Amino acid sequence: MKCLWVRPVSAAVLAAFSNAALATTAATEPPETVVITATRQPTRIAETLADVTVLERADIERAGNVSLTEYLGRQPGLQFYSNGGPGKASGLIVRGTSAAQSLVLVDGLRVGSATSGGASLEHLSLDDIERIEIVRGPQSALYGSDAMGGVVQVFTRRASAPFAADAYAGVGTYGSQDYAAGVSGRQGAFSGSLRASHTQTDGFSATTDAEKQPYSYDPDDDGYRRTSVSGSLGWKIAEGHALELSALQNKGRSWYDGGPGFDSHVDAKVATYGLALRDRFTDIWNSTLRAGRSIDDSRDYGPWNPDGVSFRTEQDQVSWQNDVRIGPGALMLGAEWLRQQATAEGSFDTDRTIGAFFAGWSAHYGEHRIQINLRNDDNSQFGAHTTGTLAWGWQFTEAWRARLGGGTSFRAPTFNDLYYPGYSNPDLKAEQGENVEAALAWAAGEGRASLTAYQNRVSDQIALDQNWQPQNISRARLQGVTLEAANTWGAWVVDGSLDWLDARNTDTDKQLARRAEWMAALNASYGTEAWRGGAELRYVGDRYDDAANLNKLDAYTLVNLFAHWSVAPQARLELRLDNLFDEQYETARGYGTAGRSVFAGVRVSTR
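Structure (tokenized):
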């Protein structure tokens, strides 16, 4: 097998890594940060054997007035595209995989559309989110179908003090407005939180070029509005036993260009409702029983369906996980049940069930750490799929560690692939993936750096044939290198990343659509507890918008500025200037992106 990881980037990337280490620069998360998604068990990030990024509430508040898709697309190893601005159809690309080939979880519950594939991240409010964990690389051995490129898990906000209240209001370019407020508290054995937010914008024209988008071009402003409500209620039943209820609902309307003369728009709803029971039965045995439902519902009003047509996915989920500490490690045993019901109005109304068993072993052996996971998913449509991962890590000095791993993954076809009239194939098989990766990481003092190389081969990939019918006819090779570095020097905080990606259809030797070969980011800020200001630079290289590589999307560079001031102990002013140089660029051919824009807000909190 010919390996192309290092050939285009070896000198530049390895030199950059060495210089980063000598300059004490490094990855952003401190080693004591605890993550869950990478192992399904609480694990210090320095001990994980996966490529992980953690975004805390303070990071999210600096994001500005952007969608969750765009915010995630700024992170190392991730790219995004959008069909015309806030609330429009968008996709997240993790290590070159499609939007449908990565899994999104909200508080442990999978969310997304079983009709089109992928999660409607553009309709989730950043105000509801306390923390985001990104795990790059296949994770089907932990989570089953769809986790071919990685997993993004969103954790909503919870009570963390006896009483807390906060509010936010902001306005900006394109008539943009954001409002949010929330309360939370703890009293005795009970805790709870309640939040509400609203965002709206006049937007800009979703399409920008009549030649590139001849059937939908309409040079009007395409706005968006969304209202979100979330809440949680916790009860400490007894020492070591707790019950928690949670709910999240986002409802929005997004206008888009469906051609002149019609007010095309989509009404969307994304919701999760969950119940979790956590029990510590003994000093070595912990159990988590989780049940819930997620909903992805939309109704599309366009010139071809002026009365609207609905697409709805409901996912009912139950999981039981047991974690037992044995000797140098932890044993994980669990089972899951998932029912997916999908309705495309006038086309199909069907469901499927998936039963799964999974096991894992994570342990320390001196300087070495291993992680083994195995999972079997029995799908009522496709039968059984067994996936596994094996990873090894070596802390060979106090500052340096290495890891090596591999695993398999799969993705079941969507209901659209199987049943949509005229454009479906009920005989499709699941896509299959095989991944290997290696990494070297360094950490000392305030500095950290990491270099990760990976290769993921996908077979039986679903693609359209000459008759526009989906078939298992495509194969892809996704390989790349990610360099991350960050450091703190007194009042200065600096971090950056460099990505090289070769995402290619190996049958045609063409680049996969909308995947840039090169990406880079550099962020720097300076300040104190009372104030901080900084700049963000992001470069995205050339891409193609189509599988045939005929329509090129030019490279672009964005520069953003931000600042915040604590004008009182419980009040802060925030300001962002995005796209400082008014770069004209596209993430999807013929679709608009925001020009130079300003957003200012005030945040108050009792914390």
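Residues 10-605 form a domain with the Maltoporin; Chain A fold (CATH 2.40.170.20). The mean pLDDT is 92.
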